Amino acid sequence: MHVARLLWSPELLRYDFGPGHPMAPARLDLTMRLVAELGLLDEPTLEVVDVEPASDALVETVHDAAYVAAVRRAATTGQPDLVRGLGTEDDPVFPAMHDAAARLVAASVDAAEAVWSGRVAHGVNIAGGMHHAQRGAASGFCIYNDAAAAVQRLLDLGAERVAYVDLDAHHGDGVEAIFWDDPRVLTVSVHQDGHTLFPGSGNAGDTGGTAAQGTAVNVALPPRTDGAHWLRAVDAVVPAVVRDFRPQAIVSQHGCDAHGNDPLTDLDVGVAAQRTAARWVHDLAHELADGRWVALGGGGYAVVDVVPLVWASLVAEAAHVPLPACLELPESWRREVEELSGLDPAERLAGGDVAWRAWADGYDPADDVDRAILATRRHVFPTWGLDPYRD
């Protein structure tokens, strides 16, 4: 049996808001070129599966029918629908908009179905992770919320508890909102403080609706948080709440815009730290959910020196052939990058493991990150019977 399924089609590159937009299809193109040059597509543990656009009925499991109709209409006419977030600077209208966004949904749902059925342990959609889209509106480069659709499909197939872990620099607000009152879904987002970054939400005190208290977990980190502090925050919150929730499947979003070179955010989390966090999520899936793990892409706008390295590593991690630290990147890929972008790519993948300090080593009240961690733990941990200071 293949260990992992990678959903991929060149048609996914049609999710294209036009020249100059940060959500450039080159992010995916360069990633898949690197995946191929590293030989990952030839690994017996990995299968690659094509995907067609999702039906309206599937998209409407997490979106209003009127909104889906509005997306189709805007794509056909080219006319904006600003009430629904279509035709804004973030989400310009383009002719392939509905089909391109629906294909992302189909890919993430296919990954969820394959994982739940046991055909594979892990599913990967690097083109997915469009976590800002709301039930009735586009937001933040996201037309349809494929991450929410994957979670919903797992529920519809019989899952009683699904954990969603979001490591993007931006708060996973759309997924959180869709499942705000659903106690079957735990949403955990580790992101830059919304007071300093879009979408302006995700405070530590936002912990879920009245029917689902404690199932929304938000770690809002200050700008300039580095990899060591970021890993401390992830470790201090994510494993404890996910373990207590006991999910039957984990869906994770691996937007890599927390990197210091990303032009849209203010965190400073290197490739090595992001690779470590992906390994931790992978390990949790095996520990808690019989390996059932759906891993998605997301944000990430340092197109050459960050995105391909993080997401190729994610594919390798899911395929159980993790890439070694300091791996020399293929010369053929580096030449392609130079020809396509005119930029000078990295020569090696990343350094070794980042040294970080565990929460058990003590709380520092003078540290901004520690204060952010403790705020989250104080708001959420008692709901789960955990000690904010020691667990």
From TrEMBL:
Protein name (database record): Acetoin utilization protein AcuC
Database matches in PANTHER family: HISTONE DEACETYLASE HDAC1 (PTHR10625:SF10), HISTONE DEACETYLASE HDAC1-RELATED (PTHR10625)
InterPro entries, A to Z: AcuC, HDACs, His_deacetylse_dom, His_deacetylse_dom_sf, Ureohydrolase_dom_sf
Keyword terms, alphabetized: Acetoin catabolism
Keyword Zinc appears in the UniProt entry: no
SUPFAM superfamilies recorded: Arginase/deacetylase
Top-level taxon: Bacteria
All residue ranges annotated as the Histone deacetylase domain in the record: 21-316
Pathway per the UniProt entry: Ketone degradation; acetoin degradation
Family: Belongs to the histone deacetylase family.
